[in-house]
Design a protein that fits this description.
It contains nine helices and 14 strands. The protein is of the alpha/beta class. The strands form three sheets. Strands 10-9-8-11-12-13-14 form a seven-stranded parallel beta sheet, with helices on one face. Strands 2-1-5-6-7 form a five-stranded parallel beta sheet. A two-stranded antiparallel ribbon has the order 3-4. α1 packs across α9 and α5 packs across α7. The radius of gyration is 22 Å and the shape is elongated. The protein starts with 9 loop residues before the first strand and ends in a 15-residue tail after the last helix.
Length: about 350
């Protein structure tokens, strides 16, 4: 790929606190960097962190070739800055960008990279392990007993991680990091992939390509798949009927892997015993959603992994060095595959 050989100047437009400062620490002193404050308005229909950029903010991007920003900002000007050559996004998910792609227009000519390093994977792994331990040791139930001053020792039975078989949907950077985290603690980890890996992956005990090879054997199933035309509704219908051990479902991938109706149906049928959900088809989750009222569901507001300034800066700088020397970029987004 072509590299920016002249100056390599960097533009930063982000809601992440101190991201510009962290990037500045890593860049050579002779490299120009411009930090733009994302001023705009907040619309009621958007997430709390989303900003509809003011026109004068977008105007400041004129001439930018290398940009660090959020995907929901990029979508607002991705057809309007012809100078762009590479954009480093600060999240792993690209749905905000994909939803605003114009099928009538050609794909944007610049490269886009996702932020999906080990920091993100470890953060998601901690979320997954936290939900597993909470479910096994029944901490919520213990809190209810505490409020009633009940010493319910006789109900306290649980399995430890090394006794569990955990299925992970998706064996990319994030899925592999979560799998490694679990295997280090003795769990048996199965992975669902779209196509067979000839060499396998050491983070997994086994990789499979069909639900029938993973769902019957798992105590927990965890989704880390991105949202693509292939993954939307992947668990809909009676797919979860194949579960034989009544597993607990953890979703830190994307909410549209299963509809609310089909998830509730799976719970009602006893195919799965509960769920911890960090992602949803619509976010914020509407107050009218029936998911709020299910006692066997734990809801968290898409906080499984938060992008931190230092981690994003280090990841960007490694990609920056690759870009400047014409090497392949890490976590490059495919306009065709949509992830």
């Amino acid at each position: 790929m072509s590299a920016l050989k002249e100056t390599g100047s960097v533009f930063v437009l982000s809601v992440i606190k101190d991201l510009g400062k962290e990037i500045r620490k890593l860049l050579p002193v002779d490299i120009e960097m411009k930090t733009i404050i994302p001023v705009g308005k907040q619309e009621k229909s958007t997430n709390l962190w989303e900003v509809i950029l003011a026109d004068d903010v977008i105007k400041q991007l004129e001439g930018a070739e290398i940009l660090v920003t959020e995907s929901f900002m990029l979508r607002q000007f991705m057809y309007d800055i012809p100078s762009l050559k590479w954009v480093q996004c600060t999240w792993a998910g690209m749905e905000p960008l994909i939803q605003f792609m114009d099928p009538q227009k050609p794909e944007p000519p610049f490269a886009v990279t996702r932020y999906a390093d080990m920091n993100v994977g470890n953060s998601l792994a901690e979320y997954v392990v936290g939900q597993i331990i909470n479910n096994e040791r029944k901490f919520y139930q213990k809190w209810e007993s505490q409020k009633q001053k009940i010493w319910d020792f006789h109900k306290h039975e649980y399995r430890i991680l090394s006794e569990l078989t955990i299925g992970i949907f998706g064996a990319g950077n994030l899925g592999s990091t979560v799998a490694k985290f679990l295997k280090q603690r003795g769990a048996t980890v199965l992975g669902l992939v779209r196509s067979a890996h000839k060499t396998g992956k050491p983070e997994f005990d086994k990789l499979v390509t069909d639900f029938s090879e993973i769902l019957p054997y798992c105590d927990y199933i965890c989704n880390l798949l991105p949202s693509t035309p292939h993954t939307k509704g992947l668990l809909n219908g009676e797919v979860l009927k194949m579960c034989q051990k009544k597993p607990f479902f953890i979703n830190v991938g994307r909410g549209d892997v299963i509809s609310e109706e089909d998830l509730i149906h799976a719970l009602n049928q006893g195919w799965i015993l509960g769920a911890a959900l960090d992602v949803f088809i619509e976010e914020p989750l509407p107050t009218s959603s029936p998911l709020w009222n299910r006692p066997e569901i734990i809801i968290t507001p898409h906080v499984g992994s938060l992008s931190k300034a230092e981690g994003v800066a280090k990841f960007f700088f490694e990609n920056y060095q690759r870009f400047m020397t014409g090497k392949e970029l890490m976590c490059k987004f495919s306009w065709t595959r949509r992830y």
